[in-house]
Design brief:
- This protein folds into 2 domains: 54 residues, no CATH class; 52 residues, no CATH class.
- Helix content is 75%, strand content 0%.
- The protein is built from 6 helices and no strands.
Length: 123
Amino acid sequence: MQDFAYLFPDSVAAWLEGRGDARFQRYERHYRADRATVQSQDAFDLEQSNVRFAQRFGSGKRQFAAVSKSKAFGALATFLILLWGGSALLSSVGATQPVAVAAVLGVVFIGLRMKHLRARGQQ
């Protein structure tokens, strides 16, 4: 039975050969930098270097999960969705009723300013 894992860019074999998504190059830079900081080559501890590498870079999936759970990301995603929906709605309604759209935009702007001023006043 043959092992065809080396053909896939995400396989361990491809990673060890330096192909794929730049994980190997990142590890190699980390390894060489750690190796250069040691006074004697006998004092270098590969296991500790690997632990530091894992702590420093970790998994990209966990980093995305942490970012997606953050308050700022949620606010940005909500803003972008509302901006997209609002622009689609305003362009279609604005063609037929421009005065109503201007009034709605004015009310929204004033409401946002009042909310901002109240938040600043409570701090």
